[in-house]
Specification:
Elements: E1 3-7, H1 13-23, H2 31-39, E2 50-54, E3 57-66, E4 75-82, H3 91-105, E5 110-116, H4 119-127, E6 131-142, E7 158-162, H5 171-182, H6 195-203, E8 214-218, E9 221-230, E10 235-243, H7 252-266, E11 271-277, H8 281-290, E12 293-304
Parallel strand pairs: 4-5, 10-11
Antiparallel strand pairs: 1-2, 2-3, 3-4, 5-12, 6-11, 6-12, 7-8, 8-9, 9-10
């Protein structure tokens, strides 16, 4: 069987999402989301999604981009996934090679990649020159059987609102997102400065659920939030949970997330997923308090090129 690596076509969205769901089922992926991401990639990211194909069937995918929003230049990322039933055909190697060549042409000198913490995947990364760095966990919560913590009334001066209530002017949520993203644990920093791009790619993203996204507002100012994503198939994911540094230590993020989870279950969601940097002990403790359990771990790998 001959493996062919090529650029994606519009009709590849479902096949691309299918491989993602099979290879990494702890993340939401559907055709609408995949097509949206392709159409709304920032031009400075030089994103070039690729697929590996065997006899007309998509068996592997690659997501690659320049981290245009990082403070330092020359940083890129490449994440390759191959369908579990199609491994061993060479698709992964061809995807990595094509991805690296593209990113190098656009100035990348440091490449980051997430790799599932399993011997075969880590060995694959090492063979291609990638060295292990920090770890992160995927966590899962069964909403059909979990005993969520009881709902609590917000303290005096605090109000809980859905993101949908900010539809007329989401800018305050953009400001809060930028504040919390700036100090999120990670190898590559990010600075949210482009409000219009945030509107197009975050606020209007097909997985973003403004009704379930919950915001803690203090004296009229958004202070903490938990961003909800849903796929319409009963799966809920926490895209981001954060607190304005000026309001930390008051339990506002936990309060917002608890209300969001209760509302997600009432809306018919059956599974909740989230991700945590392995070193973020405070957030891991919060998620364990909710009943989340670690279902997989991935390791950030890095390679220098050029």
């Amino acid at each position: 069987m001959t493996v062919i690596v090529r650029d994606v076509r519009p009709e590849d969205a479902e096949g691309f999402a299918r491989v993602r769901r099979a290879a990494i089922p702890f993340m939401l992926a559907n055709a609408a989301q995949v097509a949206f991401d392709w159409a709304h990639s920032h031009p400075d990211a030089h994103a070039r999604p690729l697929v590996a194909e065997v006899d007309g069937e998509i068996v592997g995918t690659s997501q690659l981009r320049i981290a245009h929003d990082a403070p330092e230049a020359g940083v890129g990322s490449v994440n390759v996934y191959v369908h579990p039933e199609k491994r061993g055909l060479g698709a992964g190697t061809l995807l990595v090679r094509a991805s690296e060549e593209h990113l190098a042409r656009h100035g990348a000198t440091t490449l980051y990649s997430w790799v599932l913490d399993e011997p075969a995947f880590r060995a694959f990364a090492e063979r291609h020159g990638y060295a292990a760095r920090r770890s992160a966990h995927f966590l899962r919560l069964d909403l059909t059987s979990a005993d969520l913590p009881p709902l609590q009334e917000p303290p005096a001066g605090v109000e809980l609102r859905s993101a949908a209530e900010f539809a007329a002017d989401p800018r305050p949520l953009f400001v809060l997102d930028a504040l919390t993203t700036a100090d999120e644990p990670g190898d590559v920093g990010a600075e949210l400065t482009d409000y219009e791009h945030w509107l197009a790619t975050t606020w209007n993203h097909p997985l973003f659920d403004p009704e379930l996204t919950t915001v803690a507002v203090v004296d009229g100012r958004p202070a903490a939030f938990t961003a909800a994503q849903t796929d319409g198939q009963g799966r809920y994911n926490t895209g981001m949970t954060g607190t304005d540094p000026a309001f930390r230590g008051r339990g506002l993020a936990k309060l917002a997330k608890n209300h969001s989870l209760h509302r997600a279950r009432a809306a018919g969601c059956t599974e909740a997923f989230t991700g945590n940097d392995a070193g973020n002990e405070p957030m891991l403790a919060i998620n364990k308090w909710f009943g989340y359990e670690i279902c997989a771990t991935e390791v950030r790998h890095v390679r220098t090129i050029g």
